[in-house]
Write a structure and sequence with these properties.
With 177 residues, this protein is of the alpha/beta class. It is built from seven helices and seven strands.
């Protein structure tokens, strides 16, 4: 399969025969009311980078086609599978009913959180990220098998949602390597 640079991706779509050659990993990325379209687009790029099975956009998360998502995603919305669900709880319930042994991990600061690099990730896996200010909703956290967080040593107590997802995704990918 040919690997393309961002400038090449912006100028084209990937033919279906090329998309079918990609071996998808059993990773589902769930956006719980992520409002910034830049974050949504960048998460599509992350999903492509790890060959995730699917991105599920929930609640107030904007969906493609959207100019800002398309620009930030550099067209990855065209070949990364995605769907929309009105609620994240509903999306998780549907996913759990379709995929046996699915483990769901929220990326969130919470009293139940454990360091992201101390978890034995089990596949198939769903990673949930939340609203840029409010985080993952309490109802969704209750459905998760674990909540993971990234340690913070500075004054700020949080990272951008897309950055946090990227850090955890690449830790998860170590398990598949």
């Amino acid at each position: 399969m040919q690997k393309l640079k961002p400038v090449e991706l912006r100028a084209m779509t990937v033919p279906e025969e090329e998309r079918k050659k990609v071996k998808r990993n059993p990773i589902y990325i769930i956006l719980d009311n992520v409002l910034d379209t830049y974050n949504t687009g960048a998460i599509f790029r992350l999903a492509d980078a790890v060959a995730a099975e699917k991105v599920i956009l929930c609640g107030g998360t904007e969906t493609p086609p959207n100019h800002r998502i398309k620009k930030a995603s550099i067209n990855t919305t065209e070949w990364v599978a995605w769907s929309y669900s009105p609620t994240t709880v509903g999306a998780l319930q549907d996913l759990k009913s379709q995929i046996s042994n699915l483990k769901v991990y929220a990326i969130e600061q919470n009293i139940r959180s454990v360091p992201y690099n101390k978890v034995d990730y089990i596949f198939p896996i769903a990673l949930v990220v939340g609203h840029e200010t409010d985080g993952v909703s309490k109802e969704v956290l209750e459905l998760c098998d674990a909540i993971v967080e990234i340690p913070m040593w500075g004054v700020n107590t949080s990272l951008n949602v897309m950055v946090s997802l990227g850090i955890v995704l690449f830790e998860v990918m170590k398990k598949l390597s």
